[in-house]
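Researcher: I'd like a candidate sequence for this fold, 243 residues long. If you have to choose between options at a position, lean toward the conservative one.
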């Protein structure tokens, strides 16, 4: 089955509307919602009205933009953002001094999602994939048994052996505690590297997630194209709720 998931639902009015257009045309199957962001409230209402399959898009990499976010949470969250944006290796380093901050921010985001949507998320992933940072993984903050996004999938030669080995080890650890799709790809990368036929072939016998950002013009044009529609007609498609 192919899961076509749009990230950043609720991050801004434009991002929500771009994803909603694709959903209504049956070009995506699920979305990942951000909370405490500028359009989170309206986006939740739209998701409920349109019956979207909605996951939680955990945010640890940029400030909350909803003015109603509690100041104590904002301060705590900003300390996490400052650490993770310090350098490109910060996400693979465990910071014990931020253990309570990560737990507080995660729980606040999960509770806000439940308040806005009235139901648990169908899956969990992360803005800039920070749900897989060392503090989140090693602290086991996300409850066991949840459906979560895995690392990007690559064919041999696309990344270094060390890179692929690290991702494989993390995914193997994740699979012991969570439910993962079999493969995970990014739409823009697949378009640029002409990999969509291989992704479609995998989806015939595996659960494959294709991450999309409909606010990106190149992606939205492809998602709405006849070419993509023809590909979808050959596949079983659905959201995380069906995995």
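Model: Candidate sequence:
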């Amino acid at each position: 089955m192919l899961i076509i998931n749009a990230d950043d639902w609720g991050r801004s009015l434009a991002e929500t509307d771009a994803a909603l257009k694709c959903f209504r045309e049956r070009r995506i199957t699920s979305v990942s919602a951000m909370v405490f962001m500028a359009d989170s409230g309206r986006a939740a209402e739209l998701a409920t009205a349109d019956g979207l399959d909605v996951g939680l898009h955990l945010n640890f990499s940029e400030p909350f933009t909803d003015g109603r976010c509690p100041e104590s949470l904002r301060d705590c969250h900003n300390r996490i953002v400052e650490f993770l944006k310090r350098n490109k290796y910060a996400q693979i380093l465990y910071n014990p001094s931020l253990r309570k901050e990560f737990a507080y921010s995660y729980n606040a985001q999960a509770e806000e999602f439940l308040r806005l949507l009235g139901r648990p998320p169908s899956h969990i992933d992360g803005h800039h994939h920070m749900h897989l940072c060392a503090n989140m993984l090693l602290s086991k903050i996300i409850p066991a048994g949840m459906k979560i996004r895995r690392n990007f999938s690559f064919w041999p030669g696309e990344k270094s052996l060390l890179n692929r080995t690290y991702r494989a080890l993390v995914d193997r650890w994740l699979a012991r505690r969570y439910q993962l799709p079999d493969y995970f790809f990014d739409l823009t990368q697949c378009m640029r590297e002409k990999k969509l036929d291989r992704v479609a072939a995998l989806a015939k016998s595996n659960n494959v997630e294709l991450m999309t950002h409909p606010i990106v013009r190149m992606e939205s044009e492809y998602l709405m194209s006849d070419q993509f529609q023809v590909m979808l007609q050959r596949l079983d498609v659905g959201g995380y709720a069906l995995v």
